[in-house]
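Changelog-adjacent note: as of this version, every example in the card shows the full chain rather than a window. The one below runs 190 residues end to end.
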Amino acid sequence: MSDLDLLTQSLARNVKRWRTERGFTLDALAARAGVSRGMLIQIEQARTNPSIGTVVKIGDALGISITTLLDYEQGPTVRIVPAEQAVRLWHTDAGSYNRLLAGTEAPGPLEMWDWRLMPGEQSPSEPHRVGTVELVHVTAGELTLTVDGVEHLVPTGASATFEASTAHTYANEGDVPMEMVMAVSVPPVR
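Full-length structure tokens:
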């Protein structure tokens, strides 16, 4: 396979992937990029080799670089975050903390967190953007989750999910440390 064939196939795969992840129809991307719908169809089917100007317009409309659009990588991207690179954003003298374990941007921000709350401690949170969802899985102790003023007990081994567009608080009202893993999904900006 020639370099040109590889580029054409990479561009086809990546335009379709990023268009889908952004939630754009062919018509929407065509309008944003200032290229015809027919040209996008030909690109996504690897039937044409568009000008660099067209590739730049599509990249700008998708909010990604030309390098990303022309990436040769054949499989899904795997990013490993070593334990020592997890970012601790909050902690108390008693030993409570949260750590951002990993995150990604597509289709919208998605984060995975590691939490520990010591007995008697809590962490309140302001409402997040509408459409934000949080999922928690308690691995030790018991979480007292308060969402919009209503308390919910989440014991070891249980999970909970909720829309985080209202005020919410994570608390440990027990007498042993509470540990949980949390995922946060934020809707993409459109």
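Structural remarks: The beta strands are 87-91, 97-104, 110-117, 122-125, 133-140, 142-147, 150-155, 159-163, 168-171, 178-185.
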